Amino acid sequence: MNLTQKILSSHLVEGEMIKGQEIAIKIDQTLTQDSTGTMAYLQLEALGIDRVKTELSVAYIDHNTLQQGPENADDHRYIQTVAAKYGIYFSRPGNGICHQVHLERFGRPGKTLLGSDSHTPTAGGLGMLAIGAGGLDVALAMAGEPYRIIMPSIVNVRLTGKLRPWVSAKDVILELLRRLTVKGGVGKIFEYSGDGVKTLSVPERATIANMGAELGATTSIFPSDDRTYEFLKAQGRENTFVPLAADEDAEYDEVIEINLDELEPLVALPHSPDNVVKVKDAGRPKVDQVAIGSCTNSSYADLMKVASILKGKVIPEHVSLVISPGSRQVLNMLAKNGALSDLILAGARILESACGPCIGMGQAPATGAISIRTFNRNFYGRSGTKSASVYLVSPEVAAAAALTGYLIDPRELGEAPLVPYVEKFEINDNMIIKPPENREKVEIIKGPNIKPFPLNTPLSDIEKRVLIKVGDDITTDHIMPSNAKLLPLRSNVPELAKHCFEIIDENFSKRAIEWGGGIIVGGSNYGQGSSREHAALAPLQLGVKAVIAKSFARIHKANLINSGILPLTFVNERDYKDIEVGDVLKIENAVEQVRRGGRITVKNQTKGTTFEVDLEVSDRNREVLIAGGMINYVKSKNTKKT
Ligand code: F3S
Fold first, then answer.
1. Which terminus of the chain is more exposed, N or C, with fewer CB under 10 A?
2. Which atom of ligand 1 is nearest to the CA of 376?
3. Residue 642: what pLDDT?
């Protein structure tokens, strides 16, 4: 077996490991960050369990750490108290970026990790099978439910040779992005092997696994070997080490070879992480901003390299250099050994240990500016400045740009910085709050902006009016817009729902409330766009019982099912045109019809006509819909068990 198969088989709860088939796996650890965490914990509360069932769950605060109003601080306090109540570790704001801290303090080789953040695969650098997922999936995992995925194909990335001076782990993943593009990893797990792996430290492996997310991969994983032991020992956690590797004769669906000796410093040009060229061919643009940090490149070794390049020098007047260390451990070690002073004296502005500029929280570049970043994404507008051009590079290239004011091949600087060998990291976990023994006494504190998660009722016969009729290609942005005005309402679905469909019909939510809920009629590809759960939760809040469309976008359909809203498709698309807003549609014997499968009959009471719809879902999802959504389904299953 390959390494992925070994970990999957030891966690397999349902299904067979055959490519393309659904499997369910046990989840050992979960992580959340604050941006997605509030919703995940509201969902966990709705599941009605007493405490988390995972081996370990951690709630990190790293995304929205700016406090301009009470909303972010309220979210943090809610997460802190809900974590204490349910037996979850809490990593305080300032303790660091979730993926960096998880690697340092919690990750364990051979375990599974599900996180409500797309860069959760970073822990693959430690030999974990670590996957990013939606908030509800993570809430379900915390409640002890297995995680379901379609068995991906396994790609073996064989590394040979050794990185040359000034070439970095970032260049390995940029090379893969160059070859495969941002779609090249969809439905795949990248498993690294070969002699070249031994030359890479755990933080370097984590950089590579982190940006596997930009390939669209399910995850990436490295073996657990002597280097893993060395890292865990330096973190005082050698007792969690287990050796892990693929069998000699392991089979893979695909093999890719990368000779580390041949790599050169690379850069992803604006505005896509796969727009990769050699730095020496990037045209030497003049640089306005350099931002060093993010879950990709802010380890101790990364920042020590930057400090040694900048030591005793001063950055040019036209460059703004901002550095956000990945964790407080990193920041503290830089402070103790004097490297922080080297950075400060060179002109760097030291930011908090958090995501910061990566998520657009401050440090937006100037209009039309060129920003060189060690981050993982350079999508148009992500920096907060639409006219800015963001280039993704290694810490070495970023430091060279900060020093010279130009995007240059760092080899022009001469001798490469030494990468420090760390025998022992500075360990101090006083910003990680352990769940208390006596959880009964904990009071969950919800600020005024945090409202309970809406729950559906079990399915019964439907007799409701058509609330809205929309055309083809309606996106989740049409259904539930996400903008600066609405973002602070992410934990307040009742308030957010008032803005449902407002781009198309500003009276929609008012009508839904007046009519006591209803039915949505849509065209083809209904719900395309982002995976936003709120586009199903807002209609649920407003009492929508079914969406009848010509066809659905995959993720939105899944979100409707999770919310207990029937995703029905017209058998005969011509029936679409006969329906009008206000028509009363009736589905009799709904539970029997849904359970039986096959076509469902809908009566248009207003027009006196009848038409048929399909419900194309799995048997399990039929039961989820009958229960009134995933949370009710899991709750009723657990009640039956006890
Ligand atoms: Fe944070 Fe950016 Fe990573 S937002 S989790 S540093 S991708």
1. C
2. 7
3. 57
Tens digit of pLDDT for each residue in 96-139? Answer: 999 999 999 999 999 999 999 999 999 999 999 999 998 999 99
Which residue would you say has higher pLDDT here, 108 or 482? 108
Buried b (16+ CB within 10 A) or exposed e, 241-259: beebbbeeebebeeebebe
Contact 145, 562 (CB under 8 A): no
Closest CA to 120 of 56, 192, 37, 211: 211
Contact of 218 with 211, CB cutoff 8 Å: no
Write out the residue range of the structural domain in which residue 45 sits: 3-262
pLDDT category at 68 given cuts 50, 70, 90 is confident
Strand 462-469 versus strand 518-521 pairing type: parallel
Q: Say how many Å lie between the CA of residue 359 and the centre of ligand 1.
A: 6
The tokens describing 571, both together, are: 């058998």
404-453 pLDDT tens trace: 999 999 999 999 988 788 999 999 999 999 999 999 999 999 999 999 98
> Cβ contacts of residue 83 below 8 Å, gap of 6+?
41, 59, 89, 90, 433, 435
> Considering 379, 413, 447, which residue would you say is the last residue of a domain?
413
Shared domain check, 605 and 484:
yes
Residue 483: pLDDT above 80? no
Inform me whether the pLDDT recorded for 378 exceeds 70. Answer: yes
Distance 10 CA to ligand 1 centre (A): 30
Taking 80 as the threshold, does the pLDDT of residue 342 lie above it? Answer: yes
81 falls within a domain: yes
Residue 212 CA to ligand 1 center (angstroms) comes to 14
Whether 294 and 388 have beta carbons less than 8 Å apart is answered as no
Question: 355 CA to middle of ligand 1, Å?
Answer: 5
- The set of protein residues with a Cβ atom below 6 angstroms from ligand 1 is 63, 97-99, 117, 119, 294-295, 355, 358-359, 376
Distance set, CA 525 to CA 187, 552, 553 (Å): 21, 5, 5
Q: Given a cut of 90, is residue 381 above it in pLDDT?
A: no
Residue of the nearest CA to atom 2 in ligand 1? 358
Q: Do 37 and 98 fall within a single domain?
A: yes
